Amino acid sequence: MEIEKDGYPNPPKQENVGGCLFTVVLLFVLLSFFPIFNSPSKTEVPYSQFRNQVRDGKVGKVVVGENRVEYFLKKDLESAEKSKSANPDKSYVTVPLPKDQTLPNLLEDNKVEFEVKPNNGNNSIFAVLGWLIPPFLLLLLLAWLANNAQGLGGASNPLNAGRSKARVYLGDSNEVGFTFADVAGIDEAKAELEEVVDFLKNPERYTRLGAKIPKGILLIGAPGTGKTLLAKAVAGEAGVPFISVSGSEFIEMFVGVGAARIRNLFEQAKQLSPCIIFIDELDAFAKSRESSGMFAGGNDEREQTLNQMLTQMDGFEGNTGVIIIGATNRPEVLDKALLRPGRFDRQVVVDRPDKIGRLAILKVHTQDVVLEENIDLSIIAGRTPGFVGADLANLVNEAALLAAREHREAVSMSDFNEALERLIAGLEKKTRILNETERTIVAYHECGHAIVGALVSGPVEKISIIPRGVGALGYTLQLPEEDRFLMLEDEIYARITTLLAGRSAEEVVFGKISTGASDDIQKATDLAERSVTLYGMSQNLGPIAMEKPQSSFLDGSYNSRRPVSSVVAAAIDREVKEIIETAHNQARLILKTNRDLLEEMAQHLLEQEVLEGEELHSYLNRVKAP
Ligand code: ADP
Ligand code: ZN
Q1: pTM here?
Q2: Where in the chain is the domain with CATH 1.20.58.760?
């Protein structure tokens, strides 16, 4: 019910079309099976009976077809004449002996009126339809399939399948809408691309000296770091058209469609030259061919699309003024052929911004936002390590929405804090009401995290037992003070200890445990395993890689184990278990040492639901080391 209210009252349009086509087809089929055009009732009789009736003088009129004879009885003809209708409503049909030469004589002898019809008379139309309908049906079916395969937003006409689905923004009147002023915090990448603008603006300067203008530039970076934005800014600065397409749009069910689209894309680009082709998610079709060869025959469509891409890139001269900018967050899976000179030979890494970068991005996005006087954007920049441009844009917008909702004149610092919490922990769920027992468990659990966290892994900002987001019943907010690029061994263990402190508090206080710690346990185990298999921190196993990193730019992508012997696998399990156990014991020890403080804090949290700022710090300053 709610989904309907949320603004999707109609099913997607394409489904509708598919449905309609089938109704029409069904109607056609029904019509062809029931010859409703032949109104009079017909009775099938044996041929011998027909000949007898002729001899007995009962037959008035005969229509001879090639393999069918239709006839009317004299009495029916007479009654038809009386009622002044053209034809009697009753007739008889029979199947003659093949080529019965005696029939004309017999009819003449008995003075029966007869005529000969070519073929089957009335039924010929159905014979024709019978031929036409199956291919017609097939075509419709194909069209429908193609439609569906292309999904929403696809070209709805199957004959258009080979057309590229690129969106074109024309360069004049700055339709692209972005310039370098809109891009902040990724200065190295920006500097690289500033040169490209110059290529596009003054190609003669380079060609005169015989220099070749690069054809392809590959932007590599995590999602949301501003790769699309950067490419658009290049087009905007140079004032050239921007053709944007996503790599996944080339991959279709039918082999060859992707290749045709690539061809079409390049043709389009040559006509608009000088211009920029931007291909997002390049890895969708440009995956290494070796890696996909494991399955029978590989993936033909992807391979053909990639080959076409390579051919097209080789095919045009660098001086045509078409520059291709590709973007990917999985550079390691790209086919090596794509990275050779003359193709995407320039690779630009678009990094996550550092604190100064984040400040610059916040400045860009708060340009049109009314801020309160006292807002210090650098504090927000400091509290958002790991955030990319898209996250920061989102943060500013959330804060502005919060202020607008309360009809305030300007956005305040607390709006930013609330927005930040929303982004990190999800929306508050006031409707998720916990019972008293649950609230108590959650309160002690969160205080456990806070006490241990404050002692081993840095300042705690806030604890709350207001449910948030998808599954969080409470949470402890620990924001890093600075950007970190390395994590020391101790810090990893401290983090694991903090993660396990929630569960430990439940054990220390209630002697019983709940399901509430599952997420903590998941993260702790993950971290412990990584420290062994990826960071080589185990004393016993040493610095040996036991995992293959999958992607350096995507969070949450899981690595795969290298093939290790069962002995090593067992050793890994032992090491992980030991790390977890040590951390668990330490967390319990800390909490037992601070048992009174835990009690006091938890009671206060139960009353107030949230502890933060000075109040929280005065508690956490009292934490004693065991
Ligand atoms: P990507 O293509 O890397 O996934 P986008 O370019 O689509 O990321 O970024 C999405 C949005 O995030 C942009 O439209 C812009 O509003 C904001 N953004 C991202 N990076 C930056 C940046 N460096 N400077 C300013 N805004 C940014
Ligand atoms: Zn927890």
Answers
A1: 0.68
A2: 436-620
